[in-house]
Amino acid sequence: MTEPLRVLMIEDAKGDAELELRELQRLPRVVDFRRVENREDCRRALAEFQPHIILSDFSMPTASDGMAALDLARE
Q1: I need a surface site. Which of 1, 11, 42, 68 has the fewest CB within 10 A?
Q2: Looking at residues 63-69, what average pLDDT do you find?
Q3: DSSP letters for the chain
Q4: Which residue, among 71, 16, 18, has the nearest Cα to 43 in the 3D structure?
Q5: Residues facing 54 on adjacent strands
Q6: 9, 36, 57, 72, 74 from 61: Cα distances, Å
Q7: How far apart are CA 74 and CA 58, in angstroms?
Q8: Are 8 and 49 in contact (CB under 8 A)?
């Protein structure tokens, strides 16, 4: 059996994350996801959850943006 696809969502809008998840659930593969809203949670999820894919809102006024998420993932 194939392991679940681990997806980390960096998204501050709950509704947007729900739409993304709905689309991901259409894949012919089990999806395990986590949603984070800030840099600390993102760093923790990268270490503990070890996502295969990161989907990030590009601009979030109160949290990390897409470029900051990319920098964290590169670390």
Answers
A1: 1
A2: 67
A3: -PPPEEEEEE-S-HHHHHHHHHHHTTSSS-EEEEEE-SHHHHHHHHHHT--SEEEE-S--TTS--HHHHHHHHH-
A4: 71
A5: 8
A6: 16, 14, 10, 18, 22
A7: 17
A8: yes
**Tens-place pLDDT, residues 9-65:** 988 889 999 999 999 999 999 999 999 988 889 889 999 999 999 998 777 665 566
Residue 72 is predicted with a pLDDT of 77
* pTM for the predicted model, two decimal places: 0.82
Longest dimension (CA), the chain: 40
Q: What amino acid is encoded at 35 in this protein?
A: R
What would the two tokens of residue 6 be? Answer: 């681990």
Tokens of 62: 């109160």
